[in-house]
Each structure stands twice: as structure tokens, then as C-alpha cells.
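Colleagues,

Please find the record for the two-part complex below.
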Amino acid sequence: MTIGGWIFLTISIGFVWGLCLWCYSRVLRGSKIEPPPDSLGG
Amino acid sequence: MTEPGHHPTHTHPERWGTRIGVILAVAGSAVGLGNFLRFPGQAAANGGGAFMIPYFCALLLVGIPIGWAEWTMARYGGRKGFHSAPAILGVIGRGSIARYLGVIGVLIPLAVSFYYTFIEAWCLGYFWHYATGGIGIDTAAPVSEQTAVASAFYNNFIGNDANGLLFGGSIQTFVFWILTFAVNIYFVYKGIAKGIESFTRWAMPLMALAALVVLIRVLTLGTPDPAVPEQNVINGLGYIWNPDFQALANPQTWLAAAGQIFFSISIGFGIIINYASYLRKNDDVVLSSLTSTATNEVFEVSFGGLITLTASFVFLGLTGTAAAVATGTFGLGFNTLPVVFAHMGPWGNLIGAIWFFMLFLAAITSSLSMYQPSLAFFRETLGVSRKTATTIMVSICMFGSFLTIWFSKDSVFWSTIDAWVGTFLIFVMAMIQLVCFSWIFGIDRGLKEAHRGAEMQIPRFYRPILKYVSPTYLILVFIAFCYSNLGSWLDAVKQQPAAQLAFGLILVVTIFLVICLRIGEKRWRAEGLDLDDRRPEE
């Protein structure tokens, strides 16, 4: 495994996990807010 | 009182129960065998770590924006009382041309389900065999013999040697297919919230847990054979992640990356346009779409990118893994990995069982999503109950699936459907959707509609991306794709009777769907529904 390999592995996996956790944190945070009329809860 | 424009047959319109439920259902639809088996092969063959540059470019320029467009169109169409791709595209595209082209959005999931549940049955069958003692690979024999045993088991299991094999002699594959099909129909029949949503809400976390167990086992393999110290986990990771920047100069790399993103996140499949139509007027679509895409990416990049080829490299080395990649998705999954599991010693069968159970869950969350679009289509075109619509859908699916299982020789029959419907028409459908959203419905109106109830803003630079960049990107990839594949596909149809039969089946199903749409169109007009979006809402 080269340094380049480690860099791509770390950035790629970090990016998808970061994006996913950021999205779910917003989705779950949204569920704690009173939902607007005619919308789903969390 | 019904909302103006609502479908009168939908006295109690179906809805998702929770927001997390719809996100997981869409993500479950996207996460399939390709995440674990196709992605690593594509990455390794197209520049390793460097593949991730065009991969993420395609994600940002095509995958995410088309996802937003599809969710938005679906919710808008749902508000008009429609839940099938033809009716929704008729609304968004304002007329019959878009509506009839939208039939492709019902044909794709329906026809793909003919063979997808068959493949799903392989996963269930392999899980059963691993849970009850493995498939008989002797690790004392040379690796070539082990691979031959795995290959013979696979060919026998899927009936590769002759047509009709799976209905005679050992009918185990057929039994696994019956079980798989029955489970699918059970959950689809129970409905959106009580069936599909309740299943995916536990299936997705369970799939993640299974993937995590296999990943931990693979990453702790170390150097299993001290006689070949170069075959270790770190070098296995290097096999897929070491970048080859020269590959970036090859257009094939960019094509492969765009194709992987495109097929992985289920855009243009006719599924999201159905699923998101069950959202309510003010439900968020922007963050939900992004979340389901991100979930798919986690499964693909972090599980698919770390497990499959790393495990193969550790036991089979550079040559064996390169040969496995060359055999493609199914060769890697069903020929190579069984050999790898056999080398894991006493844990091998357990890890193999967990792996194939995980693939089964990945497949079933995808196949569930393939039945709902046609079910919704038959309900709203023919004005029938859920029970009648399910009967019509099951009859068509059983007919198509029986043909798929009977004509199993060399996988020609289902490969033809996969090529023409599961690949070619998906590009066409994505293009139609993008044109309807960005050019007919209008990009400004579309983005305004997307932001209704949205919990995050779509960045402004996505306006020109959605209008110009995504369609151009898609057209270029489509042209390159046709250039690479269309000739050989047409030759296959000319030369192989099973391919012609598959083509005939696609044609017959298409005609039937068009007739249903014609009936539905007349009904909708008679009922005064706004099927051409002549009464736009503000």
C-alpha cells in the first residue's frame, strides 16, 4: 500500500462517512423540531 | 373532502409512515449486489484510488442533482394524485409524449424483477449452503481445482449448462426462488408503510451489521500464510486503493466511474419517482434525497471498497485476484469468494453465511422497490384495488420469471433483459426525466418546488449543472456506452434464440403497459384530473 493509496482510502471513506453522518444528524435533528403541517416526522 | 386533482380511487392514499423510513427504503433500493461486487472490480480495473476522482465528480454532477430532480418530480406528481412514472412524467412533461415515454419507468423495474429475484434466490441458496456446511471446497487441493469446484457448483445452481435444468433433477434453486418471490410479494402486498417501510427499517441496519462483521474479519486476517508474506491485508488494500494516475487520461475510466454512480444510486430506474410520490406536500426532498444517496455511498465505498478484493488478495494473491476481477460481478461473488471463505478455516462457513445473508438483504431491499411501481401503475390506470393490482403484477412477474428460470443456459435470456432494460433503458429514462424537469417543467420552477419544506438549500451553482452539465454528461456517457456495447448486444439478439425471446417478452410487456396507460388516460380525463399540469399550483 503506497502513501497515495492511504491518502485516497482515507479521503474517500472519510468523505462518504462524513457526508452520511452530517445528513443523518440533520435528519434526526429535524425530527425533534415540530414538523410543519402536512409533513412527516422523523 | 378530497384535494382538487386527487385520484378518486385513492380515498385513503398510501403514505410513508416516517421520514427515516422513506430514506432507508430508497437507500435500500439503491444498495444492491453492485455495491459489494461491481464497485471494487471497477475501481481496481480503472486506476485504483485515482478512480475515486471521476467517481466523485460523477456523484456530484450527475448522481446527486438527478436524485433531487427525481424526488421533486415525484412529490409534485403525488400531489396531483399520481404515483406511477407515466402519469407523473405526463404532469411534469405536460402532455402525452412524456406520459407514454414514462412507460419505460414502469417497464424497467418490472422487467428487471424477472431476473433480479432469480439472482436474489442464489444469495439465499448460498446462505443456506454456508449455514449448513459450505459448498464442498477442499483447501488441500490446488487453487485451480478449488475454483473449478466453486464454478461447477455455481453453474449447477443457476442452471448454466442447459435450459430447463432448474425444473428437473435438483429443484433447489427453484424452491429458493419461490421462497424469495413469496417474501417479496408478502411485503409489497402489505403496503408502503406496513410492508416495505417496516421491512427496510430493520433490514438496512441488519445489513450494515453483517457487513461490519465481515469487514472486521477481513481486516484482521493479517498474513494468513507466512510462506507468502506479500499476501497480507495491507497489500490487499493497496490492490484496490493504490492510485494509477495514468488511468485518468483514459476516457474509459471516466465512463466506468459515471456508469458505476449511475447504476448504483438507482436514478432513472422508475423507483424513486414512485417512492417519493407517497410523500406529503411539505415533506423535505432535498436532504432526504442526499441522505439516501450518502447511505448508498457508505455501503459502496467503505464496505464494498474494503472487503471483497482485500479478502481475495490475501488468499489468492495478485494473479488470482486479477483473474477474479476479470470474471465480473457474478464471477467474483459466486466463484471467487467461496474459495476465499474456504481458506478462512473454521470461521469460513460462518463468515460466508453472514456475507451471503447480507447480499440477500441487499437484494431483497432492492427487489421490493421493483414491484411497487407496477403495482401503483395498475391501480391508477385500471382503477382496481390493491388486491387486483397485485394479482395482475404477480401474474406478469411469474410469467417473466418462469421464462427466465427455464431459459437458464449460459444466462443469455436474463442477460439480454439486463442489457436492454436494466442498462440501456435506464440511460434513456434518466434523460427523459432530466429534460422534463429542467426544460419543460422549468429549472426555476423545479428548484422552487424542490425547496418546498426543504431542510437544506440546493447550492445555486446546481442550477446550471442541472440544466446543462448533467444532461451533457449523461449524453456523453450514453454515446460512449452505446459505442462500446450496442454492436455486440445487437449481434447477440441476431444470433441467439433465447435473446430474441427475451426481446419479444420485453416487447409484449411494453405493449400491455401502453394499453393500460391508454385506458388510464381516458379514465383520468373523464374524471377531470389534471394530468397535463394545466392547473399549476403556487
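The mean pLDDT of chain A is 82.

Comments are welcome before we finalize the supplementary table.
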